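If your schedule permits, I should be very grateful for your opinion on a structural question. Please examine both parts with care and let me know of anything in them that strikes you as inconsistent. The record follows directly beneath this note:
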Amino acid sequence: MLYQGLKASGQSWKLRVLNPNTAPTMTRHHKQDTHTEDPINLLLEHGLSEGLPQIAEMLMNAAMLIERSSHLRTDPYERSEGRNGYANGFKDRSFHSAVGPLKLRVPQTRDADEPYRPSMLETGSRSDRSLKVAIAEMYLQGVSTRRVTKVMEKLCGLEVSSAQVSRLTAELDGTFELWRKRPLPPIAHMIIDATYIKVRIGGSVRDCAVFTAIGVRRDDGKRMILGVSAALSEAEVHWRTFLVSLKERGIGIPDSITSDAHEGIKAALRAVFNATPWQRCQFHLQQNAQAYVPKVDMREAVGADIRTVFNAPDLAHAEEQLDSIVEKYSKSAPELSAWMQSAIPEGLEIFNLPEHKRKRLRTSNACETLNTQIKRRTKVAGLFPNTDSILRLVTAILMEVSEEWETGKTYIKK
């Protein structure tokens, strides 16, 4: 178990149970902390209702280890005349919370004056609101030992040392890193995209690109999140690094890859997946076309004409319809006509796939929807302190989404 790495080192743990029988409530804070409650409440109102159950499990398991040491009045493996019993393994327990069902490993004791009972699991002693506050603080404020110390106090009523906090946050980051580097199954189809989140770099506010990849598994047609990465631009080198990592982790050679036409993506795909057909997102093509429409009152008609190409029953009819609209606008909108002739064929690769697969793979809307969810759950953080804090929260979100997809219904039948 992950939390078992939180053992005592040569340093002693500074522990103080604020109340051995009752965990602290949200009203217990100092005046100087009041200004932090407003952003916390804002976080709770927007985007955290679905929760981050895996993070919650790790926090609660780690907190219970710390609290058990306090109950035993000694650190693990430490000799002490004041010892009050001994650690005696763990007992599995399910815990239902507003962030989802949690699978906890409750520390056990023997030969103690009283059995150890985690204060956070006592009826009425720990609200889900407090748990969400702790998670919000941990992941939306970046990892700061001073800040996380306050978080742990709110979570379990304990005053912990910075060394303990450093071990815990390293454990959490290690978990996310393992997920981002986990082996992947063969993938039949892949959709990739990027979104941007504000970050502070060297005293300046920058846009950080967050790359995501969705894959449809070759064996069962279910979708999953393949990976996530963050960089300060969508330059080819960043996309190439991301795509190489996916390939090295085992996805094989997909039958199709769908994305927009960003030059960084196109160059990286040519370098890494040159054997895989590329489908340019038809939704983005519709948007791109409007930049070449000379008159506002022509936009609706142009959009309708392009849709007749995309909605054709097969490639031959699509190409025939494309030739027709290229000719139609050759005089009234020559730049639009030239653009259609060169760009729209990049959106017709989908016709080489079976008809039942086309609807889900002809656009990158699956990634766009995912990016909307990421934006919704990160916007309340405002400005992130560094790229690591962005990657930390986005990874937690995507882990949750991917687990739901992988245990859900088939996305595309074979």
About this structure: The CA atoms of residues 92 and 105 lie 5 Å apart. Confidence is low (pLDDT under 50) at residues 1-51, 123-143. The longest strand covers residues 187-201. The two ends are 37 Å apart (CA to CA).
